Structures are given as C-alpha cells and as structure tokens.
C-alpha cells in the first residue's frame, strides 16, 4: 500500500537553529514528490517538486533532497516567518496524490 | 491573476441541511480537485475532474457530489449534512497529472 509519513509532527526551533524535516514514503513507482507550505487559515502553497533520487532544490533558506525512500526539507538559519506547517505529498505513477500529515514548525526569536 | 477562488470562507450548517461550496480558477487548468483536511490527518481527496464534463471519485466521496460544466468552475455539493462532514475544504487545480497544485484559501465548515 502506498504510504507517506512525515516526522516530527511538531518542531520548535530558535531563530538561526538549523534543522531538517523528514518525509518517508512507500510507493510502487514514484512520479514525483512535492513539498508545500501551509500557513494557518490558508491553503497549501507549492515549494518544490523532486522527481528522482539524488535531486536537490533550493529556495532561500530551504533545501529539499530526495532518496529512494525519503525526502528531507532542510531549513538553514530559520527566521520566525518560516513558521508554518510543511506538507509532503507523493504522486505515484498508478494512483492519486498522497499527502502526509505535515510537520508544524515554530521558530522563536 | 486571482488563481483559485473559494466561497464561502466559513459556514455553519444544521444536520440534514444542504449546501454548495463554490470553486473557480482563472488559470485555464484542466485538472481540478476537492480535498478535506481534518486535524492530524493528511489532505483527503473527495472528487476530482480532468476536464469539463468529466468527474471521478477520490478517497472519501460519500455524502458529496460534484459537477464540472465549465473549465473554470468545480462546485462541491453536500447533501444531508452530517457532523462527520465538519472539516476544512480546499479546492485545487493543476495544469496536468503530476503537476503542482494551486490551492484556494479554504472553507471552514461546521455541521451542528
């Protein structure tokens, strides 16, 4: 069965304290893996798409990486405005998009 | 561009009432989706459409209906509302299968 698991559920960081969020997946064939950011009371907003193991993408303080079993979202020197819930989603070749339950990130000044 | 627009933003229904959640997009996307999001759960697909006149069930379609008469609009109909339908509903669209999704701002629905 296709599955997506995100960890940790919640993460509290001091401003400037770098860390990583994990997205583990099990799918029969991966078409693509997506990262979204969701602010309270808003819809998810697209961050990255990764297609193959070894691929990396960066945007400001965020870097997403992909292996055959998991993806990491690395946050370098986070700021309070990075506080949000980060969602991972996996698109199998033969099924619908599957979302993880998200990691709620809080960055304190 | 407005992107994906959902209305209303909030709604309270009584058990047994019906309502329609509106969704429109101005990006000429073929694919449109309805998701629900419950605390601690991932986004669950209710219905989706690959083009005008074509709709299909997602993971949790019971108690809902959709139609797609135009490329722009994809309304979600709730018939005989139940407390289990209390949730946040998101409409989304994409250019094609496997492409990134553009989400609306959501509808917070409570059924009491």
What does this structure look like?
The complex is a heterodimer of chains A (109) and B (112). By secondary structure, chain A is mostly beta strands. Chain A contains no helices and eleven strands. In chain A, strands 2, 4, 5, 9, 10 and 11 form a six-stranded mixed beta sheet that branches. Chain A has a five-stranded antiparallel beta sheet with strand order 1-3-8-7-6, with no helix packed on it. In chain A, strand 6 (56-59) and strand 7 form a beta hairpin. Chain A is globular and about 45 Å long. With 112 residues, chain B is an all-beta fold. Chain B is built from no helices and eleven strands. Chain B has strands spanning 4-7, 10-13, 19-25, 31-37, 44-51, 54-57, 64-66, 76-78, 87-94, 102-103, 107-111. In chain B, strands 2, 4, 5, 6, 9, 10 and 11 form a seven-stranded mixed beta sheet that branches. The mean pLDDT of chain B is 95. At the A-B interface, strand 4, strand 5, strand 9 and strand 10 of A face strand 5 and strand 10 of B.
Short description:
Chain A has 109 residues and is an all-beta fold.
Number of strands of chain A: 11
Number of E strands of chain B:
11
**Structural class, from secondary structure content of chain A?**
mainly beta
- The residue fraction in helices of chain A comes out at under 10%
Tally of contiguous helical segments of chain A: 0
Overall average pLDDT of chain A: 96
- The dominant shape of chain B is globular
Radius of gyration of chain B: 13 Å
Structural class of chain B: mainly beta
Mean pLDDT of chain B: 95
Give the helix tally of chain B: 0
Q: Give the ordered list of helices and strands of chain B.
A: EEEEEEEEEEE
Q: Profile the largest sheet of chain A.
A: 6 strands, mixed
